[in-house]
Amino acid sequence: MVDLFFGDLTLPDVIMAVATGACASLVLTVAYYMASSGKPRWKARKLVHASMGTVVGLTLVGYSNLSGPTLAAGIFLSILFYAWAHKSELIWDLLLAGSREGESRANTFMAGLMSMISFGTVFLLFFSRPEIFVAAILAVAWGDAAGEVIGRPYGGRIFKRKFRNKTVEGSIGVCIFTILSILASLIAYSPDTCISCVFPQIIIVAACATVAEVLSIGWTDNFFIPMVTAIAMWYFVFPGIILLPL
Length: 246
Fold this sequence. Notes:
The chain is mostly helical. It is built from 9 helices and 2 strands, in the order ααααααββααα. It starts with 10 loop residues before the first helix and ends in a 9-residue tail after the last helix.
């Protein structure tokens, strides 16, 4: 797990930071051109949503200290502002491309901001348990994204039921991919955990995250899903662990 101080950068830190910054810039570029070409906005939004969440979840815990993610953010922002200097409307266009139908750029900004607040809170609370942090981030990156990717084209085909404009098929997708996100985090960062022993608890955690997604309004799912997933994992899968072991 990354140490909470700014120190010297190792070679793996630099390589991962450069790759992360370049990957994030590439994803935004692809999403921008998808939106510009007339493709449905939700496809570009979910591309950014899933890709960026996966990058954050899988790389942040791999740095040796906070200098690594700071360098990655600096590289990404440098590329972004270089592009903005050549196209002054770029930032607004990106916010528009990432906006839900009927919502404003301000909503998109708030979605990103609240995601960062939620990610940061989970990171600080569960600093010593990377498997909880990674599962929480991947739950929103994979689970929430699956809800729309599955729910939009296939929702209502099997179950003619909706709640808050969300389909049963989409909610099933959220649950399945949240389970996959938890399994991936446990395999990668908690090899001593007997997955078959805690699989019923994993299903409960995924159900909690699914309920959070169903009850969320607009961008609030970006805040609630990571928080609910992390707290549910702490309560059901790793009961009794001590928080904030600084």
